[in-house]
């Protein structure tokens, strides 16, 4: 059986490989023991991301992990991916993606925080245009429009795991104090369960091999169809 240290080390290597491949240079990550948990983070003073020849962004990444109840898989308790203007992760980031397993308090487990004023984003987007970013190359008469913060596309989970309307409505209630109708809690729960059941089914159709593996681990006996097992749809699994 894998130990927490083994699983955390393997996870740190995977994160290191991904970031290193993006940067084009080795970025080491380490798994540091914290009682019954491990913290996986970069082993540097900050991950510097060159932007063309004229500037930099900084990346901060960390995960808190433990083994799941069965002691088989690594469970992420919390994660943070933050992007800063400049070469060091200090002060407020431009934005940060976070996940908190036991969030509570009416807050979403996975969420996005935007810290920067739109002027800061405009400077970074202008820098991107100067550096040759494909989506930031405006026509001469469209420069101001191209630098608007509203043109940034933040990813939120792809085809299968994107937020729903109900998530946005609950956020408006929890964060801004909007008052909901008396039936809202029941409708929210029912709609969210229905949506996630539907998306689970769609994800299974995208990756039946993983569904079979998990079901067999749970003790189910899964027989392939007469025509052979359905192939995984890696185009959907890899989609942005």
Q: Taking Cα atoms only, what radius of gyration do you get, to the nearest Å?
A: 21 Å
H-E string: HEEEEEEEHHHHHH
User: What fraction of the residues are assigned to beta strands by DSSP?
Assistant: 15-25%
Number of H/I helices: 7
Briefly note the structural class of the backbone.
Answer: alpha+beta
* Uncertain stretches: none
Mean pLDDT: 84
The count of domains is 2
How far apart, in Å, are the first and last alpha carbons? Answer: 34 Å
The biggest sheet amounts to:
7 strands, antiparallel
- The total of beta strands comes to 7
Name the overall outline: globular
- What is the share of helical residues? 25-40%
Q: Could you name the key traits of this structure?
A:
240 residues; 36% helix; 2 domains; single chain; 22% strand; alpha+beta
Q: What does this protein structure show overall?
A:
The chain has 240 residues and is α+β, with helices and mostly antiparallel strands. Helices cover 36% and strands 22% of the residues. Strands 1, 2, 3, 4, 5, 6 and 7 form a 7-stranded antiparallel sheet that branches.
Short description, anyone?
The chain is of the alpha+beta class and 240 residues long. It contains seven helices and seven strands; from the N terminus they run H-E-E-E-E-E-E-E-H-H-H-H-H-H.
Task: Tell me the layout of helices and strands.
Layout: H1 4-23, E1 29-34, E2 37-42, E3 47-51, E4 55-67, E5 74-85, E6 95-100, E7 110-114, H2 118-131, H3 143-146, H4 165-176, H5 184-206, H6 208-217, H7 234-237
Antiparallel strand pairs: 1-2, 2-4, 3-4, 4-5, 5-6, 6-7
Helix pairs in contact: 5-6
């Amino acid at each position: 059986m894998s130990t927490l240290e083994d699983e955390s080390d393997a996870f740190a290597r995977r994160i290191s490989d991904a970031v290193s491949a993006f940067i084009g240079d080795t970025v080491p990550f380490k798994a540091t023991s914290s009682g019954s948990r491990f913290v996986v983070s970069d082993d540097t003073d900050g991950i510097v991301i060159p932007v063309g020849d004229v500037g930099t962004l900084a990346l901060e990444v960390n995960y808190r992990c433990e083994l799941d109840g069965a002691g088989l898989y690594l469970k992420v308790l919390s994660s943070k991916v933050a992007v800063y203007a400049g070469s060091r992760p200090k002060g407020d980031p431009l934005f940060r993606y976070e996940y908190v397993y036991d969030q509570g308090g009416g807050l979403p487990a996975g969420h996005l925080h935007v810290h920067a004023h739109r002027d800061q984003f405009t400077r970074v987007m202008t820098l991107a245009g100067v550096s040759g970013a494909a989506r930031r190359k405006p026509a001469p008469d469209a420069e101001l429009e191209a630098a608007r913060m509203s043109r940034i596309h933040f990813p939120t989970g792809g085809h299968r795991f994107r937020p729903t309307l109900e998530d946005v409505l609950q956020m408006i209630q929890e964060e801004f104090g909007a008052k909901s109708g008396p039936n809202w809690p029941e409708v929210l729960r029912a709609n969210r369960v229905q949506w996630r059941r539907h998306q689970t089914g769609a994800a299974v159709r995208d990756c039946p091999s993983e569904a079979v593996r998990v079901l067999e681990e749970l003790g189910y006996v899964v027989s392939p169809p007469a025509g052979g097992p359905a192939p995984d749809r890696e185009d959907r699994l890899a989609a942005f």
